[in-house]
Request: fold
Amino acid sequence: MLLIVWTGLGLLIVPLLIGAGIVAAMLLGELFGPIGTSVGLAVGTVLLVVVGRAVNRHHNEHTLYGIPVQHWAWIQGFFTAFSIVLILTS
Reply:
C-alpha cells in the first residue's frame, strides 16, 4: 500500500517542478549534450526553491511528507551535483 502525506499544494507543486527540471534536462540534453542535462536539472532546482518560498511565505503550509516544498530542492540539487560529477569523471 502506498501512502502519500501532504498539506496544501505540496502534492501538486513538487511533481510539477521536478517534472519541469526533468523536461528541461531532456530538452537541453538534446541540444547541448550532457552539460545541458545538468543545466536543466539546475533550472528545476531553482524553480523549486523560488515557488516553494513563494507559497510558504508566511508558514510552512505546503508540505510533502512533512517537508516544506522549498526543501525538496535539496534532493533535486543532489541529483544535479551528481550529474555534474558523472560528466567530469567520464
Summary: The chain has a mean pLDDT of 89. The longest strand covers residues 6-7. The chain has three helices and three strands. The CA atoms of residues 21 and 85 lie 18 Å apart.
